[in-house]
Structure formats: C-alpha cells, structure tokens
Design goal:
alpha/beta; 4-stranded mixed beta sheet; 7-stranded mixed beta sheet; 405 residues; binds pyridoxal-5'-phosphate
C-alpha cells in the first residue's frame, strides 16, 4: 500500500495521465476487494452496490472463483479457439441445461455477444427469410459500444455519434406491442430487447408485453432475441429473466455475471437457428479455458440449492428498505426485480447523491439524473443492505437539509 502511495506521489505528471480519459473517475485507486467490500490505497473501505456494473455476481474475490482461477491457471490457460478445451465444453453444457437453448458461442464482452446475435439473425434471414435483415429494437435500450450494438441501442445521446451508423435497426417504445407490429416489414428478421432496461435506469418490460412479443414473433416467423447481459445469471432471482414471463427466446446473450469479474460472454441459440458456416464467426480469445473455467464455477454456485431463492429474498428485503427510504425522503418509489433495483429520487440529484455516498464509503450508480441503481453481489447479506440503507438515509437527509452539500 505504502509503495503504491509513494508511486502516486512520485508521479511527475498526474498519476493517471497515461490513461485515455474516457470517463470521470474519482482520484481513488482500489487495491483490494472481498465480498461486498472494496478498499482503496489509503485503507478506506467502501460498501460496493455497483459490483463492476452487475458483474461480480459472487462479490469480490469469492473463494469459488479464486479456486477455479488457480486450478485452471496451472492446467491450461488457452489453446486457441480452433481446438476444443474441457471447461469450454462443460460451460456450454451448463448453459444449455439451465436455459433450454442448445448451442453457445463464447465471446469476451457483452457487445461482442450481441454482435454475434445480430450476425446470426442476419445469416438466418439470408437463409430463411429471403434476405430479411432488419432488427426491431427499443427506445432507450442498451446493447453495447461497438458500432452495430450502438446502432441497435436506443440511447438518444448516440443518435448522431460516430456517423455513419450501422443500418438495419428500427426503434419502437418499450411495452407497445402495436408499434412493434407496425414496425414489421418484409425486411424484418428479429426483435431484440433487454427484459429489464438496466442502463436506461432499470425499466422492466411488462410480462404481458413479453408474452405478446413471443406470440407476435412466432406468428410472423421472426426471431426473438433477449439481451440478458445484465439480467441473466441469477440477477433477478431466476437463472434468466425470461423465466419470469414463462416464455423462451430464440437467441439469448449473456455477459457480466457469467464470468463473475473475468471477461466472458456468450451468445446462445436454438439448434435450428445455428446457421453460421465455418469462418462466419470467431475470435482469438473466444472460449479460452481460463475464462470458461471461471464461468463453470459461477454457474455451479448459482445452481446450488437455495441460491436463487436467497437472491429473491434479498431482493425483497432491499426493495422494502428502499421503499421505506423513498417514503421518508419523498422520492418516487422503487423499480426492478431481484437484485437489479432503482430508486426514483423524484428529482435530478442522482449524480450528487452518488458522489456524496461515495465520500461516505458507499458505491451506488446513477444511470439517469433522477435515479440510483443498485446491483449488489448476489451474495449480499441483510446486514450489508442495512448498512447501505443507513448511509443512503444520511446522505438523502443531508441533501434535504443542504442541497449545496
Ligand atoms: C443489457 C446490456 N447489453 C450489453 C452490454 C454491453 O456489455 P459489455 O460492456 O460487456 O460490452 C451491457 C453493458 O452494460 C448491458 O447492460
């Protein structure tokens, strides 16, 4: 710790100047993590309700992941995607067993998994729907930061960024089945959505809407693609959020929690849709033994008896605590499912509240100016939820007393 401090002090230019400046970061360096807690270079502890943006589903440095990393690192890290490896086969089997879908393509990031889904849908359209290639996506949706996934996303700020945009995406409002119906043309091949729009601020697609969408896509012969990168792997209290609606997509993408902190993502599809020919899809690191061994460890933890019931219980407990805070501080209520929740602050103070919470040792995220988002480890305890609520209560109280704080 002392040597890191000395390095930071000794740095002639700003210590962070060799990093490309792509986001506003507090001048703090995290050096250790365990469960729901992070420690910075000065020894200050933070309660982490961001967890790498819903990535560290088992918390920081959980034993299951540390053990899987250690064992696999001694056996085989990588052998090229042109060859099978043991953890890759095992993880694909686990995903198939728990999702009911048949085949997996492994990727390194959510955006790459979504690119794969878009490519697979286009390929399927070229084979089975006379070249249909357009995908209906949703206003305020978020599918990643590659050019195609930015075009698929419905972030208003991205409308003209990095032009020219990748073509082939029609946007409609989330929840309006008649608008989806109207957007369908002979060129349409698929509908793609997040069951809960996480980056937009945690807005759930209604169960009836998801069922209507499944019926509509079946009737029209279109593919239904679920982006479960934020909602999958137990985040909402089920292995996959589509289970809440009692329907199944044709293609699903996973990321974030799948690797529990290691870069790992997946695009999963029904057998009948898997029409890639050799050479259509691939990538140097895809399915490497190291990452997929960690994915197996994560899936096995989530599949343990009682784990998902625990997520549901903690979700209800957190939601109840946030509802109470909302009433006390005249906020606008709570949205979300399981351990993906948002508090509607009722006014555009999210970034200031998140900054003050950070100063008090609590990490929460403000995905939109009027909301805070909570994505704790799925292993979070009641005591940690209580500690978080106490800090947030203080911060909201301080803000009400002095909005300039
Ligand atoms: C629903 C959804 N899709 C895709 C992505 C992109 O994933 P990645 O940042 O791993 O590329 C994210 C990331 O936040 C996401 O929440």
């Amino acid at each position: 710790m002392t040597s890191l401090n000395a390095t930071l002090m000794a740095h002639k230019a700003g210590p962070f100047d060799a990093l490309m400046d792509i986001t506003s970061r507090p001048p703090v360096v995290f050096v250790e993590g365990r469960g729901s807690w992070l420690r910075d270079q000065t020894g200050k502890d933070y309660l982490d309700f961001i967890q790498g943006w819903a990535v560290n589903c088992l918390g920081h440095c959980p034993d299951a992941i540390t053990a899987a990393i250690t064992v696999q690192a001694r056996r085989l890290i990588n052998c090229s995607p042109s060859f099978y490896n043991e953890p890759m086969i095992r993880l694909a089997g686990l995903i198939a067993r728990h999702s009911g879908l048949d085949r997996t393509f492994f990727a390194n990031s959510g955006a790459e998994a979504n690119e794969g889904a878009i490519k697979l849908a286009r390929k399927w359209g070229s084979r089975h729907r006379a070249g249909a290639h357009k995908i209906i996506t949703f206003d305020h949706g978020f599918h990643g930061r590659t050019l195609a996934t930015m075009a698929a996303s419905g972030k208003p700020q991205w409308e003209h960024l990095f032009a020219p945009k990748v073509e082939g995406f029609a946007k409609v409002p989330l929840g309006d089945i008649s608008q989806v119906e109207r957007a369908i043309s002979v060129d349409t091949v698929a509908v793609m959505l997040e069951p809960i729009q996480g980056e937009a601020g945690v807005f759930c697609a209604d169960t009836d809407f998801l069922r209507d969408l499944r019926a509509l896509t079946r009737r029209e012969g279109l593919l239904l693609i679920f982006d479960e990168i934020q909602t999958g792997i137990g985040r909402t209290g089920k292995f996959f959020a589509f289970e809440h609606a009692g329907i199944a997509p044709d293609i699903m993408t996973l990321g974030k929690g799948l690797g529990g902190g290691i870069p790992l993502a997946a695009m999963v599809a029904h057998e009948g849709i898997c029409c890639f020919e050799h050479g259509d899809q691939g990538g140097t690191f895809n399915g490497n033994a190291f990452a997929t061994a960690v994915g197996c460890a994560v899936m096995e933890e989530i599949a343990r008896p009682g784990f998902l019931a625990g997520v549901t219980q903690m979700g209800i407990y957190l939601s109840g605590g946030l509802e109470a805070l909302s009433r006390r501080h005249r906020c606008g209520g709570v949205r979300g499912k399981g351990l993906l929740l948002a508090l509607d602050l009722g006014r555009a103070i999210g970034p200031q509240i998140a900054a003050e919470a950070f100063a008090q040792g609590l990490l929460v995220n403000s995905p939109r100016p009027d909301s805070l988002r909570f994505m704790p480890a799925l292993t979070v305890t009641r005591d940690e939820i209580d500690q978080m609520l106490r800090i947030l209560d203080q911060v909201l109280g301080k803000w009400a007393a002095d909005p300039t704080c």
